[in-house]
User: Fold this.
Amino acid sequence: MVVGYPPGGSVDLVARTLAERLVPQYAGVALVENKPGAAGRMAVEEVRRTAPDGRTVLFTPASVVTLYPHVYRKLAYDPFSDLAPVSPVCASCFALAVGPRVPEGVVTVEAFARWCKANPTAAQCGNAGAGSMPHLMAALMGRELDTEFMHVPYRGGALAMQAVAAGDLACAIGTESAARALYLAGKIRVLATSGAERSPFFAAAATFREQGLPALTQREWFGMLAPARTPAANVDALAGLLRAVAREASVRLTLEKAALLPEVTSPAQMAAAMRHEYEFWGQVVRDSGFTPEA
Assistant:
């Protein structure tokens, strides 16, 4: 199982949890190979070159296959012709967090937009990097609220949330896992989450949908894909195993600790979701005016 990120992060944690359970049902030995670099793209390039025999799979966040084709001018892979979807495993929604720079009385997204319009020089929104899903979520939020935000990229969502907690920024949008620890410590406030329903990790925060912003009902899944032309029997076997694993109490607890929720579908459903999300993020990128990187 090839992972495009270093050991210790959320993607690696879930991959290793899955690898333990691929033995012996699917394979006699299951290894996780960390292939960090190029924001997860190197792992995709490695998997697309491997034999489509069911022995090598990719475990990746959705953005690598649904968003990156729109934010990089050239990719060494095509997510639809080079990969075979197996299933997502879990998902993380996004959280809009504010800190001490924003008055305590600002408790809704609409109130925050009014505050930003009254304080335009303070309307800075941190994110996990230019062209990331949190960056584009912030761009979409600004468009929906008719509010200008200065986007401030960081090398990861956790660093953006730390800047909010320190009062360096008014807000940040990041994954729920990036916001969770500082929220529990009382150092940031979460004004909204991006799920279809309220988050179990931020139950007091209304969703964007509840606050009149249904376009921001989005999440990022972590999922498994195989090289294109992998036999359907292997793909179906892996998908069935993932469905069983996702029901295990110990796995659900591991995901919960990382502020992740189980999400498993069939290969056909994953393929359809990838296509839909590819089209959605492409439109968001075009509307935002983001210039694709080399």
About this structure: The first helix runs from residue 10 to 22.
